[in-house]
Write a structure and sequence with these properties.
The structure is a homodimer of 351-residue chains. The first copy, chain A, is α+β, with helices and mostly antiparallel strands and 351 residues long. Chain A has nine helices and 14 strands. Chain A has two domains: 23-164, PurM-like, N-terminal domain (60s Ribosomal Protein L30, Chain: A, 2-Layer Sandwich), CATH 3.30.1330.10; 173-338, Phosphoribosyl-aminoimidazole Synthetase, Chain A, domain 2.
């Protein structure tokens, strides 16, 4: 019998040139510092972040701030039209924009799964930096945590956005009133169907891409209409139907939409039909619903159609005072059906 | 052969009185609305949140804001001394406080794992509400997402905090200078050892509890010292050693601490010794390191000791200009050893 080599007790020393995220990257030690220095700071470079304080200091240009937070868990992390980073930046900027506010800055918190490839992480970070730059907004504070394999699914991102409230332009969910026209900025259901196709590996005839976009330019274009714009909402999770229900409830009004008036791209409509999904409940990431005083609605439509993001803008309905909190759809046959919230979900982890 | 009952195709309708989180709670539909109305809004009640806009509107009392974001993934979710909700509120408020800022508000983003019991979630939410109330800060915006079983571990929370910068009190990691005294507000390593004991089921002689606390009252007590306070840092992940290294690097100074000067509770020291851990690298959640001009250091110590959170405050070292970026420990024998960042981690998912 040959003698066994002696057992040497040793802790595994993390490689510092790994191509994947290690638990040690979440330690607060040397690997954490490397993760920041190599992957995040070069992309998100700005003076507030570079100070590496416990908090970043920013100037406040307004007396009132709009604050919004959103966590993103979309699966798959990368999909036609963008990735989780695109959503995380555009989604939160859109929430700030829906209040009429001008975005000031973003923060980003990451939960990374051990084993996530740096190739994927770097693409996500690059896309966040690109989207933030396009919107002219810096990511001023960040945080990274690492959890073990099987304790996340790739990565999750939280973004929080701050915006300067514009005293002359303050749309809010509760400001809709009977008589308002309801407009939509573009065709619906693209994001949800792009995710579903990517997830299920559906071979659709045409590749459906997510509509993810920053709606800020479109909001800025509507700004001159001032107080005639009563409410803005981007119909993400839960789709247009849920957004309309939320506004109807917040303003205690009835919302009536016309069947067929909500634009749905042909390939998206076909995919929805095959899968038995109602496009009104499918998520969007670059569309907004506009509640506007009727006498300003033609102007609003014209303004939106002049912008690439709103080229297919359409009038989809009106606000009534008959049944507060209800969303109704007038069908082609002249009858009316209620458009309710879905009890559960059509598709989890859509954003 | 008896005829089979006809197969009825049906989607499972989610129960709306479940005692656990369902995927449908993340849908943006009726269950999402219920999750908010039943579990979150009653606890986090405040006008900004109740408006349920895409973003919340808050007044800004200062020309400059401190912004900090932090994600919390601690395992186990509940531990002696607190839960993930306590950490999520105190941790982010402390980051804002370390800049000398007065907290204005918090946001909270939740990633919930399908199957999480509402009993646990409700305790976490209640603890967040309690900690926020104690600090006098409202949670003005929130978001919830649900991921499938095995795609998270119970729940993760991101909190983002805003604070009003105090022009007369602006400690920063880069403002430390040679000659400064280094103080610590209390005994170290309690949080990390409490988590380790809870996680590994260690039967220690005494129950070690986390030190999680909001440091704001202690920071407010130091405020009258004004510009004499150069830097504050709460040594969380990576412990006191990492915090000192970060300050030494940011200010391009040498930090010298004295062996034995950093207070460690007896039971914590004993547990560290058994497990082979260095308390200087173990996480804290209610302790801060203070870099202060030497001529104000006695006042600072006296002020901290007068407050329950700082009763055991101690002088632990001084700032030199010999080796910029280095942290050294003067040993009892008169020699010096370097206190470096750990390459990886002692304990993952500590906060």
């Amino acid at each position: 019998m040959t003698p066994r080599a002696p057992t040497i007790l040793q802790c595994p020393v993390p490689l510092d040139d790994a191509d994947r995220v290690l638990l040690g990257h979440g330690s607060g030690g040397r690997l954490s510092a490397q993760l920041l220095a190599r992957h995040f700071l070069p992309q998100f470079d700005n003076p507030a972040l570079a100070a590496l304080g416990d908090a970043s200091v920013i100037a406040t240009p307004a007396a009132e701030l709009a604050v919004s937070t959103d966590s993103f868990v979309v699966h798959p992390v990368e999909f036609p039209g963008g990735n989780i980073g695109t959503l995380a930046v555009n989604g939160t900027l859109n929430d700030v924009a829906m209040m009429g506010a001008r975005p000031i800055c973003l923060t980003a918190g990451f939960v990374l799964e051990e084993g996530l490839s740096f190739a994927v992480l770097d693409r996500v970070i690059a896309e966040m930096a690109r989207a933030a730059l396009a919107a002219g907004v810096a990511i001023v504070a960040g945080d990274t945590k690492v959890v073990g394999r099987g304790q996340a699914d790739g990565l999750y991102i939280n973004t929080t956005g701050l915006g300067a409230v514009d005293p002359a332009f303050r749309p809010a969910p509760s400001r809709t009133q009977a008589g308002d026209a309801i407009l939509i900025s573009g065709p619906v259901a693209r994001h949800g169907m792009a995710i579903m196709a990517a997830r299920e590996g559906l071979a659709l005839e045409s590749a459906i891409t997510s509509d993810t976009a920053c709606l800020l330019p479109l909001v800025d274009a509507l700004r001159p209409l001032g107080s005639a714009v009563h409410a803005l909402r981007d119909p993400t999770r839960g789709g247009v139907a849920s957004a309309l229900n939320e506004i109807a409830a917040a303003s205690r009004v009835e919302v009536e939409i016309v069947e067929g008036a909500v634009p749905v791209p042909g390939d998206v409509a076909a995919a929805c039909e095959v899968l038995g999904l109602d496009p009104l409940f499918v998520a969007n990431e670059g569309v907004m619903v506009v509640f506007v005083a009727d006498n300003a609605s033609d102007s609003a439509l014209q303004i939106m159609r002049a912008h690439p993001l709103g080229a297919a803008a359409a009038r989809i309905g009106r606000v009534l005072d008959a049944h507060p909190g209800m969303v109704a759809m007038r069908t082609a046959l002249g009858s009316t059906r209620i458009v309710d919230l879905l009890p559960g979900d059509q598709l989890p982890r859509i954003c």
